[in-house]
């Protein structure tokens, strides 16, 4: 039995939202644990194999869609939003229009968000415990099978748009999510309503047409999947569509009209590091493995490793102009230890219609 009586949980919920603001979150919402609608959608998505090689999406049974199975005793979920937009979107558009520039998804320009959000969520849990005494909880930031967007939608943080990202009417979609599963009977926030209307800008802009229908994304075609999640070769028919995107893709967010309300983040940890917001493909292609590890320390980018980093940049170079500098850099990678790197460098050289010299 918790020392707080049930009638006070409404007041506690308001206090939790206030504490969240103090800790740097832009919004806190609360939901119950009924994710049956999302469970049905997830089941269909998996049955159609739209998760590609992301086997972890199907590896946890019902834990992902039934919070109390993942964390026994869970009665309510605290969902938190933290904005991350590091720069004016006009700069992103300029990069995408410049074939020699390297485009990295804006969320990955700064420090890895996982630890930052996890620490803030822990502080929020500590504040709750200081107020009511010990309680059962577990915090998550992409660290377990959690349907974070479905939870956030129920908690009133936004609605899941046609591109499958969460959209907030007052903040757009440039934000991270985190959750605290609790055994507290906290009152639920009002769920968000959908405001996509007839807009299909995200479907039309998607470079690989991965948004196969409104609210349906085939991850196997998604640039983020191809450059981050996929471990092997990028399908040849999709390589030309990647352009200069070497880590993730923001096109569907950049085009979304609701992002005119997005605000730049005040978090210094989300600011670009090592010129990742303003580097050329050739500059990043020249990183040795030790340089890659050093410059991606504390970054989400490190998880793909140096080989896939080179794989992605080779494809981007193959989509660019056939310069002597590109030819020289790609030719050098034909001697790389990794077959994956050699394959994509060879393709890039052939794409540029340049002779290959071993």
Automatic annotation (TrEMBL):
One of its GO terms (molecular function) is 4 iron, 4 sulfur cluster binding. Its main location: cytoplasm. Keywords: 4Fe-4S, Cobalamin, Cobalt, Cytoplasm, Iron, Iron-sulfur, Metal-binding, Oxidoreductase, Queuosine biosynthesis, tRNA processing. [4Fe-4S] cluster 2 binds at residues 206, 222, 249, 252. Binds 2 [4Fe-4S] clusters per monomer. Catalyzes the conversion of epoxyqueuosine (oQ) to queuosine (Q), which is a hypermodified base found in the wobble positions of tRNA(Asp), tRNA(Asn), tRNA(His) and tRNA(Tyr). This is Epoxyqueuosine reductase.
């Amino acid at each position: 039995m918790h020392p707080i009586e049930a009638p006070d949980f409404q007041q506690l919920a308001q206090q939790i939202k206030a504490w969240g603001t103090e800790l740097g979150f832009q919004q806190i919402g609360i939901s119950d644990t009924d994710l049956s609608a999302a469970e049905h959608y997830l089941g269909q998505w998996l049955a159609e194999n739209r998760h590609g090689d992301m086997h972890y999406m199907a590896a946890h049974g019902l834990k992902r869609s039934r919070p109390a199975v993942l964390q026994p005793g869970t009665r309510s979920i605290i969902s938190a939003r933290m904005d991350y937009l590091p720069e004016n979107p006009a700069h992103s558009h300029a990069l995408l229009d410049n074939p020699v520039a390297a485009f990295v998804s804006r969320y990955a320009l700064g420090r890895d968000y996982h630890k930052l959000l996890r620490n803030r969520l822990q502080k929020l849990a500590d504040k709750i415990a200081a107020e009511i005494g010990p309680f059962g909880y577990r915090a998550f930031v992409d660290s377990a099978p959690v349907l974070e967007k479905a939870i956030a939608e129920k908690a009133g943080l936004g609605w899941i748009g046609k591109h499958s990202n969460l959209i907030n009417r007052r903040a757009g979609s440039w934000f991270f999510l985190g959750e605290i599963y609790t055994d507290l009977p906290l009152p639920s926030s009002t769920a968000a309503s959908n405001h996509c209307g007839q807009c299909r800008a995200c479907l039309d802009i998607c470079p690989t047409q991965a948004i196969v229908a409104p609210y349906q994304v085939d991850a196997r075609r998604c640039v983020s999947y191809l450059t981050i999640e996929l471990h092997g070769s990028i399908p040849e028919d999709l390589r030309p569509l990647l352009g200069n995107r070497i880590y993730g893709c923001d096109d569907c967010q950049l085009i979304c009209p609701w992002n005119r309300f997005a605000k730049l983040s005040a978090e210094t940890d989300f600011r670009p590091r090592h010129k990742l917001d303003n580097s050329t493909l050739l500059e990043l292609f020249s990183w040795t493995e030790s340089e890659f590890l050093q410059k991606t320390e504390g970054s989400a980018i490190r998880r793909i490793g140096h080989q896939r980093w080179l794989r992605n940049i080779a494809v981007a170079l193959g989509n660019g102009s056939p310069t002597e500098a590109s030819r020289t850099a790609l030719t050098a990678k034909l001697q790389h230890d990794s077959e994956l790197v050699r394959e994509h460098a060879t393709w890039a050289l052939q794409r540029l219609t340049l002779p290959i010299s071993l």
